[in-house]
Design brief:
This protein is an alpha/beta fold. The protein is 44% helix and 11% strand. It folds into 2 domains: 3-125, no CATH class; 128-189.
């Protein structure tokens, strides 16, 4: 996926939900920090953008998320036309570190605006280490591959990811432990020799 496709997804999700702002919490949130040409292929291979509507009521968030899926989700005419889909999600979708909302990356430009140029919608993308912590708590092979690729390219800091994992809600204790062990192994394995003895 490319940065302009992320921006298109932000604009579309805002138009579908009638909101001025949304949050991107899936792997493509990394495009809020880095353009696609600075990222390894594994980090941009997903053709789905996970969008979290911003509301004060998770029931409303779920309704808006379902609306996004119905209009622009997998197998929708939107996906057939544009080559990627938008998945609406709610706050139960990801295990996120404490303070993640304060570290969101703002994406707003002419490509996130309505065709008339106004309003200019806003997408808030997860911080890169918060994203990696969430992906490791999910702990699917594709999530591990995503984080590993970013670590190997020195695009994220494993120490920061480890710190963030320690602040994820305690109800995810088992996931946190698995993620922490995996991360420690990756750092100690150090295939590039970057962190080993001099």
């Amino acid at each position: 996926m490319r940065r302009d496709q992320l921006e298109h997804a932000i604009r579309t999700a805002c138009q579908i939900t009638g909101q001025a702002e949304v949050i991107v919490i899936g792997s493509q949130a990394i495009l809020g920090t880095y353009p696609e040409f600075e990222l390894p292929q594994l980090a941009t291979s997903s053709l789905e953008v996970d969008i979290l509507p911003i509301t004060d009521d998770n029931n409303i968030t779920i309704e808006l998320a379902d609306l996004i899926v119905g209009v622009a989700g997998e197998l929708s005419p939107f996906e057939q036309t544009h080559g990627f889909s938008i998945d609406g999600v709610d706050l139960t979708t990801a295990a996120l570190p404490d303070g993640w909302k304060d570290r969101l990356i703002k994406v707003q430009n002419s490509n996130t605006a309505a065709p008339s140029g106004h309003p200019q919608f806003i997408g808030w993308c997860l911080d890169k280490e918060d994203l990696c912590a969430a992906k490791l708590c999910a702990f699917r092979p594709k999530d591990q591959n995503f984080v590993q690729a970013l670590i190997e390219e020195n695009l994220v800091d494993p120490a920061v990811i480890a710190d963030r994992l320690g602040t994820v809600d305690a109800r995810y204790t088992s996931a946190i432990e698995n993620a922490t062990r995996w991360l420690a192994y990756q750092v100690n394995r150090d295939p590039g020799g970057r962190n080993g003895p001099a």
